[in-house]
Amino acid sequence: MIKLILAFVVAAIPVVIAITLHEAAHGYAALALGDDTPKQAGRLSLNPLRHVDRVGTIILPAILIATQLLTIGHVAFLFGWAKPVPIDPSHFPNPRRDMALVASAGPLTNFALAWLGALLFHLTGYLPPEAASLAGDGLDVFIVVNLALGLFNLIPVPPLDGGRIVVGILPLPLAIFWARFERFGLLLLVTLVFILPMLAASTGHRFDPVGDAAGRVIPNAYELVLRLAFDAPRPD
Q: φ, ψ for residue 209 (rounded to 5)?
């Protein structure tokens, strides 16, 4: 039981860090581009409690972590969200372009954190064996969580960051059309990630496009991050 609790904590802490810095990055990017709305709302903070959504940040990730630890022994996939940072595009010099830049700040921060985690692998060899193993497990989850969060948010469906980036770079008529998906984008994502795979499984079939894509893309991204971190040693 103690080992399971420790594994849960090792998996949960990277989730909190990844989501907190992702959202804070949106706020700081908006401030740099001329919008102080996140500052006025108190969202330029590294305090996780400022960014927590009870369901998306705590309940759902906790269920996914616990379920995977109890069934497959490790965390292979996570899904969640934080409380959106309030942003007023009317404060930007170029609202569409600058919103795309603000949106990209979150995933870019997660990719930078994944690279930093890979760099830290170089230091684990200087630790005692048990500490090195625990640190390696934590860094492994930290990298995977940040890659998963960054890549998932690049899916080009509003309200995800990728959807807002697409709205910022499409010609205006197409951008207006694409932005309309935001009102039911989250429902579409939940349907693709959870509802359709469960319905397919209940009929003896497999349909999990997001999970299958993550299973191919994240391992490749993981290997790339290790190479970019000066061939960081993969944990045992």
A: -65, -40
Burial class of residue 175, CB neighbours in 10 A (0-12, 13-18, 19+): middle
Q: Mean per-residue pLDDT for 17-36?
A: 94
What does the DSSP assignment read for 14-75? HHHHHHHHHHHHHHHHHHHTT--HHHHTT-S---GGGT--IIIIIIHHHHHHHHHHHHTSS-
Active site residue 130: no
> Which candidate in 23, 130, 182, 223 is catalytic?
23
Does residue 148 contact residue 81 with C-beta atoms inside 8 Å? no
Per-residue pLDDT reduced to its tens digit, 195-226: 888 888 889 999 988 888 988 999 999 999 99
Centre a 10 Å sphere on the Cβ of residue 40 and count the other Cβ atoms it contains. Answer: 11
216 vs 67: which has the higher pLDDT: 216
Q: Exposure of 49 by Cβ count < 10 A (0-12 exposed, 13-18 middle, 19+ buried)?
A: exposed
pLDDT at 1: 62
**Cis peptide upstream of residue 209 (ω within 30 degrees of 0):** no
Highest mean pLDDT among 22-36, 49-63, 180-194 belongs to 22-36
**CA 120 to mean position of chain CA atoms:** 20
- What percentage of residues in the chain have a pLDDT greater than 90? 51
Phi-psi region of 77 (alpha: psi -120 to 50; beta: other; left: phi over 0): beta
Decide: helix, strand or coil at residue 224: helix
CA atoms within 13 Å, Cβ hemisphere of 182: 16
